[in-house]
Amino acid sequence: MSQSITIEEYQKRRARLLARLKKASAHAIAVIPSAQLQTRSRDTEFPFRQDSDFFYLTGFNEPNAVLVLAPHADAPVQLYCQPISPHEEVWHGRRLGVDKAAETLGIDFAASIDDVDDHLYALLDGTEKVYFAHDKHDLAAQLYSIADELRASPKQGHQAPQAWVDINPWLAEMRIIKSPAELELMREAARISVLAHKRAMLFAKPGKFEYQVAAEIHHEFAMHGAISPAYGTICGGGENACILHYTENQSELRDGDLLLIDAGAEYQGFAGDITRTFPVNGRFTETQKELYNVVLAAQQAALATLKPGSNLPTAMKAAGKTLTEGLHALGILKGSLKKLIDDEAFRPFMIHGLGHWLGLDVHDVGTYTQEGKKRKFEPGMVLTIEPGIYIPKGMPNVDEKWHGIGIRIEDDVIITENGHENMTSAVPKTVAEIEQWMTAK
Ligand code: GLY
Ligand code: MN
Ligand code: MN
């Protein structure tokens, strides 16, 4: 079990935001809401999952809460949360409550969420800039409605905010570089995800169903303290592997097919995100092996480029070149190799990107360009590298022997001072490693 993020680290994050607010304006505030429960069916809800930005700034895991940062106020860090209520708690679960919030979370002031509009009315009055996430429409409606009230009473000296600014770019820039404590939690999310993939490889057999493989994975996650997957688990046997976000997981696994599993644990908010593709019966056919080794070589070529100062398009170029060479060598791509490489002829076989930032969100925040240029890697960034080849049935101009094969290989990587650390390399990956793991039960 890895250490959680300390109160001091949360305080430092909020202090950084407070300093930026102060610099941005003589009178600016930021409003960051928690997630809300979402209805699953009538009066039952989906399991609660905290908003990543709110969690990043508070570590507080309840719905119906709002964090306000107001550098000019007597209490610059304010939390509005659900008050203690024996009736509500006996139905819906324990609450931290207002009285304990300030000390437990290291904030300056706490009050009931029932009073947040009154406090926001006072805080917004005369404020120059209000920072909030512009994709949070419920919050926007709440803030604009309060601003309308202020606008309606200028003779009483009230004044609505002058500017609404999106806070997402600031938070994304903070979150894209992971602290040492965050990296520890990400290594744990990765470690648990590795165990689950190894378990799935041992479990899979002809006649098992995709959802049974998913159940094995989720069981392993939970046994290590990761009670939820970080995203919808993908278990795609045979041609189902060609559907990139296949989450139906209803089919029976067939002898002679490959199984693509894309699954990652969520541990203390952080995502793992691993894909492996392996034979249901433990042995690759020659055809599968040939195509698999092309994807593997492409992943290795991409991984080899990862270091500070490099960038994702450079890794993509290496992967793309290797995929094209491999597809050409197998006769799937025909013609001049140089021209095929220049034309990125692999593209119809891999329509998705090579990878993405990884963190509290599986597709984590952070831009991929900076000032119009490719974004350079820096130590503390975490990303996935996940090339694939997908040849659905009926793909034109491709020999039928390749039809119905989808292969992706995905690992989670930290950019370090001198290069990179692959956190998920312990899942068997070469043909020999996979066959050995699956048959040496
Ligand atoms: N599991 C989603 C992805 O690999 O991007
Ligand atoms: Mn994935
Ligand atoms: Mn991914």
Automatic annotation (TrEMBL):
| CDD domains, alphabetized | Prolidase (cd01087)
The cofactor(s) it depends on are: Mn(2+)
Q: What EC numbers are recorded for this enzyme?
A: 3.4.11.9
Q: Which GO terms describe its molecular function?
A: manganese ion binding; metalloaminopeptidase activity
- Residues annotated as domain Aminopeptidase P N-terminal: 5-141
Broad enzyme group: hydrolase
Assigned keywords, A-Z: Aminopeptidase, Hydrolase, Manganese, Metal-binding, Metalloprotease, Protease
What InterPro entries does this protein map onto? Answer: Aminopep_P_N, Creatin/AminoP/Spt16_N, Creatinase/aminopeptidase-like, Pept_M24, Pept_M24_MAP, Peptidase_M24B_aminopep-P_CS, X-Pro_dipept-like
* Gene3D superfamilies named among the record's database cross-references: Creatinase/methionine aminopeptidase superfamily, Creatinase/prolidase N-terminal domain
What cellular-component terms does GO give this entry? cytosol
Reactions catalysed, semicolon-separated, are: Release of any N-terminal amino acid, including proline, that is linked to proline, even from a dipeptide or tripeptide
One Gene Ontology biological process: proteolysis
What family does the entry list?
Answer: Belongs to the peptidase M24B family.
**Protein name, as recorded:** Xaa-Pro aminopeptidase
